[in-house]
Amino acid sequence: MYERDPSRVVVTGPLAPYAVGLCAAVLHQGYTPKSSCELMQLTAHLSRWMGARGVEPEALAGPVIAEFLAVRRRDYRKRTSSRALVPLLAHLRSVGAVPEALVPVDDSEVGVLLSEYRQYLRDERGVVEVSVRRYLPPVRAFLSTVPLPLAQGLAGLTAEHVTRFVLEGAACRSTADAKKMVTGLRSLLRFLFVTGRISRPLAGAVPTVANRRLATLPGRLTADEVNTLLSGCDRSTPAGRRDFAVLTVLSRLGLRACEAAAIEINDVDWRSGELTIRGKGGLTDRLPLPADVGEALADYLMHGRPSDSSTSRLFLSGRAPRQSVTASGIRALVARGCKRTGLPRLGAHRLRHTVASDLLAAGAPLPEVGQVLRHRSQLSTAIYAKVDRVRLRELARPWPGEAS
Known about the structure:
With 404 residues, this protein is mostly helical. It is built from 18 helices and three strands.
């Protein structure tokens, strides 16, 4: 049928030379024939409109696209937003027909400093992009309080200025946001000192936010809940095989969401039975590959993952365009699994806590648990010291006046 064969959509006008390549590209990215047909029909409409007005492909920018969409909304109800044109514009940019979208550049003093700071976090500190984005808002807010010119204001920066900013900012933030603020601010102050913009190390002047994470027991799942979560994946579908593989990796190896998302195909060493993990701070570790994890990954690779994908990442999105799953996608995958099986909504990190708790229950000492979880600080592992309630009862002292 015509509506199922995107190659039969006739494109005339300025975009005609790119129609065949676009059709092949969207099919390769995993779009269904129906969606591909609709995209090609949208392309044909845009090309006719461009031809009638003498618009060349290199002129496809914001104002021109907005004008076309306004015209399209008069007669069409589907694919009338700028998002519908994303696959087309991406293809045109990839073949050089449309220039890359210009990214606004902040050339102010603060903007230039933040650009250098962002590069420092990535190259020198090995901070992942998601953490960089968390650091920048509080850092920008702090720099906005420094008098201009910026170089002179930073040279006169005092511990009192730093402390006052934190106390005022923490008063209107949640505890979690306040922690992110002080973490980013300490990082900025270290950067400023290392680069010679301030003469004294002021990171120590940043007050500490009250941390009560040791006041409660780490959350975990029981073995039955883990099995329920895994059994809820429909392994007869590619998406179900992927979900099962991801959940198996998280529940058996205790990976962070960002670490699971970063796994590449070549990270799985089938011969030696090991898996390479890219952790926080740019660190790389090799973990043993349990048999059930290897079986889940092999099943996904052979029967669930598109074989013609151009990315080397292991886990791919289930919908077009086929892209690598992000850390937020991993967290969303766990949340969908909980909803599907009737479990309370849990974060991906809860599976990491479960692995640590199971290791302790099996008699593993805390240092070994820290090695499996790849903690750089023993303090991070210390939260699991309370999990073994049987041993804690041996240390507990009776309440004064309580009957024996």
